[in-house]
Write a structure and sequence with these properties.
Elements: H1 7-29, H2 33-60, E1 64-66, E2 74-75, E3 78-79, H3 80-99, H4 122-147, H5 152-178, H6 180-204, E4 207-209, E5 218-219, E6 222-223, H7 224-254, H8 256-261, H9 266-299, H10 303-310
Helix pairs in contact: 1-3, 2-3, 2-7, 3-6, 3-7, 4-5, 5-7, 6-7
Length: 311
Amino acid sequence: MTTPFTYVEFLSVFLAVPAVALAVAVARRTDDSRRVLAGVTALVCIAVGYTAPWDSYLVGRGVWTYGEGVVAVRFARVPLGEWLFFALQTIATGLWYHLLAPRGDSGVDPALPVGSGGRFSIEGNARGVGAGAWLAVGAIGAGLVVASPRTYYLGMILAWAAPVLAFLWAVGGPVIWRDRRRVGLAVAVPSAYLWVVDWYAIRSGLWTISADSSTGVHVLGLPVEEAVFFALTNLLVVQGLLLFDWVTARAAERGPADAISGLVPGPVAGQADSVAERVGPLASRVGPLASRIGAAANRVPGVAEVRRRWQ
């Protein structure tokens, strides 16, 4: 089957052009382009580094294949276009996230959400509930990997993405929950766009999902595995950028130490503060006590002095 594009040509049309348009739009709205660039660049590096080994392994197992003439160059079994896909999807989704922020602002409140300090509330329990839920999803994914060859691809997606999402909720669950509407919109639009793009690529023969490794379930013509993959990867990008912006906003307002401490769960931070409060007075007492012991030691006669007195 003759395909209308090579992989790189396909990305140039459907991802590079939208990414450039989004970059121009974001540049006109933000007053802090360095923060935007830093956050997106960091997420690109993480996305490529975390996705490439997983992708290479699945390509080697034949979970998906490419049409004739689509791939010209490969690195570590992964086509050049695939490497570019990792970066361009992260850039496009990240820029769309920033485009939703108020003009000239990150749109992220640097304060900890109310109720995150220990009292029962949705925000206060978001860390444990969110992390636990995603760990459960990861366990389900691991089970699907070994349950049947037909659920292998879906299981690998869940087992690969869920632990990172669990970590993001463990450190920033209250913030993610507070800004859930922005997160939802930032994920929904790029995911819907990529579903259409992926549907077209599969229909055009650019790549094919192996029937032996997939469930065969389709949603509006798109394999359910692909729909889940793009939803989860965009969720990783958006939540990662949200927490990046929250930490940088806290650092700008209160200093780096307070920014990092904000990622520590409330009870842990409370215990640390309690220990510090107890150690402080104790340390103030130790100082004078040490001085008294030193003075007393100076009054004790040495061995030579004792001999002299007894002679």
